[in-house]
Amino acid sequence: MPRTFLLILLLVTFFIGCDKDRVFDEYKSLPNEWNKDSVLTFTLKNIDTLQSYNLFINVRNSTDFEYSNLFLIAEIQFPQGKVVTDTLEYEMAAPNGKWLGTGFGDLKESKLWYKEQVQFPESGKYRVSVQHAMRKNGNEKGIQNLKGITEIGFRIEKILN
Fold first, then answer.
1. DSSP secondary structure letter of residue 3
2. Is residue 6 scored above 80 in pLDDT?
3. DSSP assignment, residue 68?
4. I need a surface site. Which of 19, 36, 103, 112 has the fewest CB within 10 A?
5. What is the model's pLDDT at position 75?
6. pLDDT tens-place string over residues 80-118
7. Residue 115: per-residue pLDDT
8. What CA–CA distance (Å, rounded) separates 127 from 76?
9. Domain for residue 84, yes or no?
10. CB atoms < 10 A from the CB of 145, how many?
11. Angle at the Cα of 47 from the Cα atoms of 161 and 25, rounded to 5 degrees
12. How far from 161 is each of 21, 22, 53, CA to CA, in Å?
């Protein structure tokens, strides 16, 4: 029994230590579909204004996701009111239909680059918002309910020099 406990403790310590560059990592769950009007917001507090970071949007999808690409609108709202908005496109599947994310079975996770070497120059609370911007070819109306997206995450990692 004591050896088993010690082994578990060592494994937990190892896995926690492997993610020392993580500053923020949070997910929002969706009911296997994402409504076009649903904006997922992540609130960032106490971000070091002198440190540089890499930003990622994490997407967990099931095989119910019918597209090879994913279009997103991401927005960062600064504490003093400035807003930076980006329209993003990510490849989710190879041309042969094989999912590019990691994972087993019907669920895949993709860690998608959002911005690199970012500084948060203002002290205070930042908000990062993400919503989908998917449309079918030839149709200006967006897809009302995007099936197959189960979670959206936002991750910040320190850039270690």
1. H
2. no
3. S
4. 19
5. 98
6. 999 999 999 999 999 998 888 999 888 999 999 999 999
7. 97
8. 6
9. yes
10. 13
11. 85
12. 11, 15, 11
DSSP letter (8 states) at residue 143: P
pLDDT of residue 64: 93
- Can you list the alpha helix ranges (DSSP code H) found in the chain? 2-17
Report the distance separating Cα 4 and Cα 9, nearest Å.
9
pLDDT at 2: 60
In a domain, 13, yes or no: no
Alpha-carbon span 86 to 42, nearest angstrom: 16
Taking the model in full, what pTM does it have? Answer: 0.84
- Closest residue by Cα to residue 74 from 149, 133, 148: 133
Q: Which residue from 113, 117, 23 is spatially nearest to 72, judged by alpha carbons?
A: 113
Q: Let me know: does 23 contact 47? Beta carbons within 8 Å.
A: yes
**Measured distance CA(47)–CA(59) in Å, rounded:** 23
Q: State how far the Cα of 69 lies from the Cα of 134, in Å rounded to an integer.
A: 9
Three state DSSP letters for 47-65:
CCCCCCEEEEEEEEEECCC
Residue 9, domain member (yes or no)? no
| Residue 18 domain-assigned (yes or no) | no
Domain region containing 65 = 23-158
Instruction: Domain count for the chain, please give it.
Output: 1
Is 50 exceeded by the pLDDT of residue 11? Answer: no
